[in-house]
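**Sequence, structure tokens**
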Amino acid sequence: MTDPTLGPENELRDIVEAKLASLVLELEEVNFKIDEIAFAIEDVLKANWLDQAKALRRARAETPDNFVSDGNEG
């Protein structure tokens, strides 16, 4: 699952990748297996952020370009 808006040279993606690589290395050093680490990261992302981020992306995509908020949508 990749974000098409993030190109191969995206600064945010590079930072996240470096932080995750550091976390994985740290956890491997205390004897966690790579598959355990990867699935734990996936579980946390799914539980806390991915569904909400996907819903926001869908809502933004469905909002007409000429939409003007009056502040009373909700």
